[in-house]
Amino acid sequence: RPAGYDPVPRLTLEEGDLAEPVDFMPRHGGEDVLQDIEGNALNEAVAIARRARTGGQAVTLYVPLSGASLRDKAALERILAILDANRVIATSLVFTIAEADFQELMQSSRPALEAIQRRGGGFSLTSVSSLRLNFTDLSELGVRSVRVNAARLIASPETFTDFHLSDIASY
Prior knowledge:
Layout: E1 11-12, E2 18-19, H1 21-24, H2 31-54, E3 61-64, H3 67-71, H4 73-85, E4 93-98, H5 99-108, H6 110-118, E5 122-126, H7 135-140, E6 143-146, H8 150-155
Parallel strand pairs: 3-4, 4-5, 5-6
Antiparallel strand pairs: 1-2
Helix pairs in contact: 2-4
């Protein structure tokens, strides 16, 4: 059974082919474009979560979120308004943030992260480089899951953690 779903933005090219996010997402600057893409992903996630709930199935959706949206007052207000308007399914929405970005946002945008958490949204850290984390603190901050490169974890678990792989599930 799937743990959740990731809405992934794709760009339709003139020939009808689909471009992957790495091919069109802004790398530097482009905050407005990134905010629009993240806003659209959140709206789609809300629609999917509502349909699933109406059909009697709870679903978790992992929605991309960046500092561009959290640091922009108007974009943050839109996110919070969407969560307020959809409190029934807000716990189904988990925002994915790269671990490095999350650490930086904890310093610069902690009130924004806390506001999302208060409204039921959670966080999933991506690109995690180590499982030597304080999971109690992360849980208090609304982090519900962490994502690591599974192939690297299996090939050399000692680079990620000091405990045995079979014990990871309990965390």
